[in-house]
Amino acid sequence: MHELGTFELTYPCWALVHKDSIVSDEAGRPTGVTSPIKLLVFDDSSGGSMFPLFTDSDLAARFKKASSGLDDFVILAVKDATMMADGLRMVRGTADTVTLDKPEVKGKPYAIWPLEYAIRRVEAGDPL
Questions:
Q1: Full residue range of the structural domain in which residue 102 is found
Q2: Which SS3 state, helix, strand or coil, does residue 66 take?
Q3: pLDDT digits 0-9 by tens, 81-111
Q4: Vertex 60, ends 118 and 25: CA angle to 5°?
Q5: Does residue 47 sit within a domain?
Q6: Among 92, 73, 78, 61, which residue's Cα sits nearest to residue 16?
Q7: Which runs of consecutive H residues, i.e. helices, occur in the chain?
Q8: pLDDT in tens, 2-18
Q9: Is there a domain that residue 8 lies in?
Q10: What is the pLDDT of residues 48-73, one digit of tens each?
Q11: Phi, psi of 19 (to 5 degrees)
């Protein structure tokens, strides 16, 4: 059992990735990602920037549809804590915070954590 007020992150969770970051085979099937991967980060209302994550692919798809200008982004599964920590480290210097289930997804609760806090917690295997 985790402490009250924390979020137990389960995998997969979902991120939006620029389509140029996806490597495909000759048949067009995804086989991997580029390094560094181009993850969606956007400006928030406080003058900072956020890296959005989603608890399921449907929420990511709804966010993408509700947001304009995201046609060049695809939904990517973040399969485990290692992949999550790598992604969080990749947005250092670009994002101030990480958000789960961004508030534009109506009817779904959301949470926001400072990026460095989230990196430490994920690397340690602790809840956010």
A1: 13-124
A2: helix
A3: 999 999 999 999 899 999 888 655 555 556 7
A4: 95
A5: yes
A6: 73
A7: 57-66, 81-90, 115-124
A8: 444 567 788 999 999 99
A9: no
A10: 899 999 999 998 998 899 888 899 99
A11: -60, -25
